[in-house]
Amino acid sequence: MSDLVVKGLAKSFGDVRALREISFTLGQGEFLTLLGPSGCGKTTTLRLIAGFERPDAGRITLGGRSIVNDPPEDRQIGFVFQTYALFPHMNVAKNIAYGARLNRSISTKRRVGELLDLVDLKGFERRKPAELSSGQRQRIALARALAPQPRLLLLDEPLSALDAKLRESLRAQIRHIQQELALSTLYVTHDQEEALSLADRIAVMHSGTIEQIATPQQVYEHPQTEFVASFVGRANRFSGTVTATKDGLISVKVGEFLFSLIREEGLSDDLRASQVTPGDHVSLFVKEERLQLREVRENAISAQVVLVEYRGEMSIVYLKTQIGSLRARVSTRQATTLSTGSEVNVSFSPSAGLLFLAS
Amino acid sequence: MKKGGFLVFIGLLAFLGLVFYQPLFSVLRRGLTEGGRWSLSPLATILTDSYFVHIIVFSLKQAALSTLLSLGIGLPGAYLLTRYSFPGKSAIRSLTVVPFVLPAVVVALGFILFFGESGWLNQWLMSVFHLPSPPLHILYSLTGIVLAHAFYNAPIVMRLVNASWEGIDPEIEEAAASLGAGGLRRFVGITIPLLTPALLSSAALVFIFSFLSFPIVLALGGARYATIEVGIYTLIRTLLDYKLGSALILVETALSLSLTYVYLKAEGGFATLTQGSRRVATCPLFSRKASMCKMVIAAYIIIAAVFFLGPISSVLVDSLRVRGQWSVESYRQIFALGYNPFLGVSPLRTILNSLFIAGISTAISLPVGIIIAMFAVRSHLPGRRLLEAILMAPLAVSSVAIGFAVLYGLGGAPLHVRGTLIAIALAHAILTYPFVVRVIRPVLEGLDQSLVEAARSLGASPIRAFFEVILPLIGPGILVAAVFGFALSIGEMSATIMLMRPGLGTMPIAVYSLLSARQFGAASAMGMILVVVAGIAFLVIDRLGKRGVGCRTLW
After folding, report:
1. For A81, which of B454, B461, B473 is closest by C-beta distance?
2. For A75, which residue in chain B has the nearest alpha carbon?
3. Domain that holds residue A321
């Protein structure tokens, strides 16, 4: 059963078209992340659902009932702001109680206790927001949003102002609480790692539209559009021309090199539906971890090592080839055998490449 | 802007048009007419007559000298506040607001009592050095006027330059040092250019204030030294020459508008600088290590302390001394109901008049200021910057001119306020609302819009969100603005004197009348009431300002 249904949402600010046409559904208890670069419309989408802005066109229904004409206070939707937006003149307990107090069916005092327990901040009732660390503020903001028992929780880049370590632990805490409460949740972020690790599904957004909406694994391994392929994960991109398609293989010429790809693996849905034919201009993507340096197989290119960047267990190798610069991610054990300036052969398996028709 | 807000704003424009713009325009038009026709002859009279040319030149000259002296006294103070730590530093920083609420006539009184021929300083110098006659002749001269203006304006320089200096990211200087620049080169090549906008804007501000200063010149200039403001007052109130008075107002307004333009230009360069991530490191001022530098600093502090504390302490001491004895007789006189020959009314009446005027003035200037601040922060209308500048125009028009505009242009129909306390209150409201805007505006700008959204997503209606979230957050700012406006009105003398009628006297007018009659005890007692009002205003502004609202940008 889907809880939130968004259909054909559009919104402009003056001449700027923030949202062109946004449609998606969110199931009961599902965690959906809106992922995209800044300015793609993800925050606008969230604000329209919360009721802070009015859409120019489109429908929003929650539990089967349209909420487009409801003011924010009647929607029963919790919102967690990037800047926390805690009321500076109220202490922690009053901040959390604010929403619960307005909802008469909730016993305020017990609810504050429960929520402080939930976010691990028991004993902080009397502190003012200014006396909290930023991580604590964000947890209080979450507790406050949960207090009136919302039907839907919206989080607008809630972790972007925090440092990396804190971000990771809060991320896990948010996910844990969301699963415990089985709360339908919409989470906006520009951080792909956050999106991949948190969500049941990810909607990748780009200039006011959704490019792909799928599970994290599908988005990562089977990007549907060139934008998704370049935005999610790190991939090397080549421009080339299809020269032949036969025996389940596609041959693509990039510069002097001829690469062959397995047809079923290498085609995005768009391409599979149409047909690639010899002469088509295409973009070829190979993820950095799919480039091989050890043994030469098919699709080999000779390259020169420019730089080896140590990243702990893995290392990034920057390479110079005749068809441009490449990045490869290999185990550090293997990277230590490489020295700057040395010659290596880079290759990738025919199943590692992804093709998109060049626009 | 929503429809209701738009209507309120139109109402505000109509109100200001009626009480300020139209009266001001009718005064300016009066300066350009001769016998009912447009004519440049009044203006030509002003610009060719040697007396008027003299007072115009003198106004500019004293303003320039006052600016130089204010910078000379204020800049070392700014340096000390920025680079050193010492006990009482934050108190001194706070006290730099005081000139804004301290009535000028009280400063003039303090100067007469402290620097005068038989003032405390001369008496002390005579007894210490066994001199037969007073060594200092400061009053009723250019020196006295310039000194009093520096008393008023040096703290402003100190505050503005200190704020800008502390805003300079120390990393910029560290970067210069790492590139090989020594102390002097860093100061000349880095610090001074970065401080230039603050220096220029504070200099421009001090110049404008000194140029438009009225009570100090009136009280300390004597008969020989008159500025344009005093000239206008004399023409209109003594000679009843409205035509030439209006023409002189025209000249003055043209000059002050150009000066204000320079100030706003300089202030514009200000904002971009204050982005320091780290504070400037300070070193303790009082340490065992004595040095030449420390001696100079000590000398500066002693002179500054005498200069700033002397006049105010003199007012306090003189209010409590009658014929060489400690006594509260002067205060008894002030709170008396009986007729006072020097005032034309009972002293108590002037106190009640002041309170009434300040109450009405605040009740008008507060809503006007809040509406304009909301307009400035929220509106997206094209041309709103220009409209904003026009709405802040009373800042650039002299108080004497505004007083005359209300007297001449507003007195009759449809308001029928000529010769009433309401007329004075209206003039005060016009003079003070720009300051209300300047206090409220940063408060509204600092208000995170998502707080309202947060309250609403938690189930609060817009009205609830306003009363439970917005009002508690901007309430202290509104209180600061109200107290500030009230204190400015209580201390206002320039516009008031233009609208004076028998029986309408206020406290500052009483101080001026009493000191003119050389009734220094009573003048001091009345002055002390004004000092106490200013002190209470200062405490409210400072306390609430420390809680994160209010007066970072009082000017």
Report:
1. B454
2. B457
3. 234-357
